Amino acid sequence: MNGAVAAGALASPIRSMVPAAQAADGFFELKAVRAKAALLGPGEPETDVWSYNNVVPGPLVRARRGETVKVRLINELDEPTTIHWHGIRIENAMDGVAGLTQAPVQPGDSFDYVFTVPDAGTYWYHSHNKSWEQMARGLYGRLIIDGDADAFATDHTLMIDDWRLADSGAIDEQSLGSMMDWSHGGRLGNWVTVNGTSYPKMQLAADGANRLRLVNPSNARIYELVLKGLNAQLIGLDGQVFDEPRPVDGPLALSPAQRIDLAVFGNGSETAEILALNGSDQIPLAGFSLPKKTDGEGASGGNGNVPLLKPNTLAEPDLDNALSVELNMEGGAMGMMTGARMGGGMMGEGRGTGGMGGGMMGGGGMMGMRDLVQNGFAWAFNGVAGMPEKPLFSVPRGRTVRLTMINDTRWPHAMHLHGHHFRVLSRDGEPEPGTPWRDTVTAGVAQAQNVEIAFVADNPGKWLLHCHMAEHMAAGMVTWFEVA
Ligand SMILES: [Cu+2]
């Protein structure tokens, strides 16, 4: 499969790139199952992966803003799993967080996800039980919600993932759970795929704007992306489109779980591609075919009109009456953390948490780094490593939360808030231009250490706040809050 999706036919509520597994009761079935994928490209050895419906990424789930999505997860793996619908302002019981919003779905069992989608935009879905292993093995897919008039000539989604493969093409399983990765930058891959294959080629239209949706399902890698041979404008981030397109000035940083939406046009070059900066190298990720000019000379080019997209309706934060919360992030290699309390809460993201909930031991007492590491922890939020029994904060429904994240580590972290989108107010005290809506924001290293965000806590339930570097979450960077 490549990412091509015709923008024209948007009639049916949910469609798939693969033969649809539609049950008689109207549920779209996603079967978590072992499969083989041609990650290395055609003619190369295939890789054993974990998939939804035998494909990586999983089938496209697509609906229109305001519709109800009905998906049945059928677990044919040997261990429990769940699905999280990343970026959807969803009903709490459907958020898919094993050990917080639902019990993990046991092998042979199924779970029905039924939820309405309030926002149009680019989203994705992925496992939220042992994510550090299950996402790394391929359990993720595309979730696109269409707006009222998304009149693009072409519409391509690019899921950019890095895999850690042995020479044989098999997943390097020995490194899964490596404490070295967990306490450093996470498990980084050595092979990058776009939509589960190596360097796919996508067709762009000569007339009209082409929409590119960039999604990062990688466990831990932050991409610095460059477009060649294209004129590009930024039209949205994390599923939320802007009132007006914004210029692209320099490489595009895409952290784990984030999305970037672009409108692109050929710039007259014969070839166009998207590359990832890697030190002084540039790794080509995918190519684009541009139609010839009508006179047959050279490629089409232009910088035409970008279709106007209708932003979603989100409540604006009321900063004057906000609940202020501080989140201190600490730990990791070369960090200053000497110890932390170990969370006693239940969640399925740690080691050996294949069973019900999560196996967080202890809770309560202060522990030194050595004991923490022996229990699989290397990071802490506000002095607690792993899921706390009590929420970071409780807030009445409708109140604004102003959250200051202070990164006291030597590593960047992609912080993800469940169930809500937030405005980025400032980075290192500097106001963020355009204060975009996001669901995942990066704090640290190349980006600002301290990030201030605000959101209206208008979605009742228990919501996770965590680093989306899957190994950092598993090793302690996770907490939760409650909207009453
Ligand atoms: Cu992190």
Summarize the structure.
With 484 residues, the protein is mainly beta. 4% of the residues lie in helices and 42% in strands. Among the domains are: 4-152, Cupredoxins -  blue copper proteins (Immunoglobulin-like, Sandwich), CATH 2.60.40.420; 319-483, Sandwich (Immunoglobulin-like), CATH 2.60.40.
How would you characterize this protein structure?
The chain is mostly beta strands. Among the domains are: 4-152, Cupredoxins -  blue copper proteins (Immunoglobulin-like, Sandwich), CATH 2.60.40.420; 319-483, Immunoglobulin-like, CATH 2.60.40. Helices cover 4% and strands 42% of the residues. The chain contains four helices and 35 strands. Strands 1, 10, 11, 13, 15, 16 and 18 form a seven-stranded mixed beta sheet that branches. Strands 21, 24, 27, 29, 30, 31 and 33 form a seven-stranded mixed beta sheet that branches. A five-stranded mixed beta sheet has the order 12-20-19-14-17, with no helix packed on it. A hairpin with a 2-residue loop joins strand 19 and strand 20 (281-289). The radius of gyration is 21 Å and the shape is globular. The termini are far apart. Residues 1-20 and 355-362 have low confidence and may be disordered. Bound molecules: copper (II) ion (CU). The site of copper (II) ion has 5 residues, from loops. Copper (II) ion is lined by residues 413, 467, 469, 472, 477.
